[in-house]
Amino acid sequence: MSTAEEEWRGVAAEDTETLTQRATLRLQRRSRALLGSLLRPHSRMVALALALVVAENAASLAGPLIIAIAIDSGIPAAVGGDPSTLAWCVGGYLVASLLSSGLRYLFLRLVGRIGQDVLLDLRQRIFRHAQRLSLSFHENYTSGKVISRLTSDVDSLDDLLDNGVDGLLSAALSVTGIAVLLVVLDPPLGVFVLAGFIPLVLAARWFFRNSNAAYRGTRGAIAKIIVQFVETMNGMRAVQAFRREQRNESIMSGLNGSFRDANRRALDVVAVFTMTVRMVGNISLAAVLLIGAWRVVGGGLELGVLTAFLLYLRRFYDPLDEMAMFANAYSSATAALEKISGLLEEQPDVREPESPVDLPASDRGRAVTFSRVAFRYSADGPVVLPEFDLAIPAGQTVALVGPTGAGKSTLAKLVARFYDPSSGSVRLDGVDLRELSDSALRAAVVMVTQENFLFSGSVADNIALGRPGASRSEIESAAGAVGAHEFISRLPEGYGTDVRKRGGRLSAGQRQMVAFARAFLADPSVLVLDEATSSLDIPTERAVQGALESVLADRTALIIAHRLSTVLIADRVLVIDDGRVVEDGSPAELIAESGRFAALHSRWRDSLV
Ligand SMILES: Nc1ncnc2c1ncn2[C@@H]1O[C@H](COP(=O)(O)OP(=O)(O)OP(=O)(O)O)[C@@H](O)[C@H]1O
C-alpha cells in the first residue's frame, strides 16, 4: 500500500472535510467491500427479492395498458352489445393489481428480513472489533465515537435498507419499464418525454455530488454530539462539582448548531433536486396533454392510448421523487459506511501471535523480566522509558513508588501487555509476552486497576469475572479469603445484589475488596496492582490490607503502592523516576539509607500521627 493510501487507513480520514479524488475512491472501495461482505451470506435471498420486485413491477405496469385496451376496444365493443372484452379487461386489471400487492408484500417482508440480519451482523462486527482494538486506539478514539458508529451510523444504514433500497429498485424498474412502454405506445410522444431526461440526468449528477459532501458533514457532526454527550454523562460528578454545566451547554449548543446546519445543507440539496424532478415532470405532462389532445382531435391518436400515456407519465415521475429519497438515504448511508468501514479496518497494535508458545509449569508465581525496554505511547510522543532493565524472581512482591508521571503505571501496563514495548522485551519465565496466546497471558497475569470497575450485574457475577464458570461456593470462598464475605452477606440480596441498583452500590473500599476477590478467584501467577489512591478509614484500610496479603500469597506481584502499609509488606521496593529505577532494595534496607524512599517513608509516617 502506498504512503498516500496509508494516510487514509482506518479512521484517519474521519475528521477530514475535503478528500482528494484518490482518497474518495479508496474510501468508496472500502465501503463497497464492507457492504458486499455483509450481503454475500444472503445472496440467494437478495436474488429472490430482485425476482419478486421485477414480477411486482411487471404486474403493476400491466394496469394502464389494460385500461387502454378497455377504452379503445372493450367499451366500444360493449356499446355494440359484446361486453366480453371489457369483462376480460376488468378481470385482468383486478388480477394484475392483486398480484402486484401480494408480490409487494412478499418483497417487503424479504427485504426487511435481509436488512435486519445485515444490521445485526454489522452491529456485532463493530462491537466485537471495537473490543479487540488495543487500548492505545481507544485512548485516542473515545467511546463516544464508537457509540456513534454503533448507533447513528448503523441507523442510517437501516434507513437505507428499509426505505431506500425498496424505493430505488421499484423506481429504477418502473422508470425503465415505462420508458419502453411509452416509446412502444406512441414513438413520437415517447421520444419527446425521454428528451426531458437530459435535464434530469444533469440534476441527478449535481445532486449526488453535493449531497455526498453534505452528508459527510452530518455524520461528523452527530458523532461530535454523541462524544460530547457521553463525556458529560461519564464525568457527571466532575461536571457538577466544577459547575461546568453552562460551559458544556454552550459547547453542546454549538455542536447541535453545526449538526442542524449540516442537515439543512443536505435537505436544501434534496429540495432543489425534488423541485427539478417535479417541474420537469409537470411540464412534460402538460406538453403531452396538449400535443396528445391535439392529435386525438385530428384523429392521429386514440383516446385510450393517450389516457394510458398520461397514466404512465404520472407513474414515470413519481418514482423519480422516490429516487431523491433513496439518494438522500444513500448519501447518508455512504457516509456512515465510510466511517464504519474505517473503524473495522483498524488493526489492534497488540496482536496475538499466530503460533503461541506455552509457558512452563509453575506453582509459585513466575519470573518477570524487562530486558532493555524502551517505550513511548506513540511514534511521535515523548520517550517514557528510555531503557529499562529489571528482573523480578518468581513469588516476589515488588512495590513501585515514585513521583507522579515517573512511569509506574506504564511499567504495570507493559507487564499486563496492554501495550508492547517500542524496543526490548518483557518476559514471563523467559517467554516474551508477544509469544503468548491471549488466553495464556490473561490466565497468567491479572491487573487490578485503580478504578475497580464493576459491571452491571450481581456482586457474584462481578467476582466470577475472575474465572467465568466458577461455582457459587468458589465465589464465596474467594470472597471469604479476602475478607469480603461478611459485608457482601449484609447487602440486601447478599451475593445476588445488583451493584448498579440503589442499595447495591458499594463504597470505594468495598469495591476494592470485590476486585481482590475477583483477582483471588482468577488465581494468576502474576498480579499487577494499581493501588487506589483514595484514602480509606482505618478499619477499612485494615480490611483491605488483610485482603491484599491473602491475594499476594504465592504469586509474583507488582504493586503501584500509594499506602505505607502496602509498601512495608513488599519484599522489594523500587523507586522510579523519569522512567528509571533510582533505588532498589528491601523496605528495611531503603529506610536505613538516606535516599528518596527514606524521605518518603518519614513523610508517610508523619502523616499517620
Ligand atoms: N495513554 C497515554 N498516552 C500518552 N502518554 C501517556 C499515557 N499514559 C501516560 N502517559 C505519559 O507517560 C508518562 C508516565 O506516566 P505513568 O502513568 O506511567 O506515570 P505514573 O508514574 O504511573 O504516574 P501516577 O503516579 O501519577 O499515576 C507521563 O509523562 C504521562 O504523561
TrEMBL record:
Domain ABC transmembrane type-1: 47-332
Transmembrane residue ranges: 46-70, 85-107, 167-185, 191-208, 269-290, 296-313
Keyword Transmembrane helix: yes
Entry keyword annotation includes Membrane: yes
CDD domains on file: ABC_6TM_Rv0194_D2_like
Pfam families assigned to the protein according to its UniProt record, in alphabetical order: ABC_membrane, ABC_tran
Predominant localisation class: membrane
Annotated ABC transporter domain residues: 368-603
Gene3D superfamilies given in the database record: ABC transporter type 1, transmembrane domain, P-loop containing nucleotide triphosphate hydrolases
Localization, UniProt: Cell membrane
GO molecular function, one term: ATP binding
Coiled coil spans: none
Keywords per UniProt: ATP-binding, Membrane, Nucleotide-binding, Transmembrane, Transmembrane helix
Membrane topology classification: Multi-pass membrane protein
Protein name as it appears in the record: ABC transporter ATP-binding protein
Organism whose genome encodes this protein: Actinokineospora guangxiensis
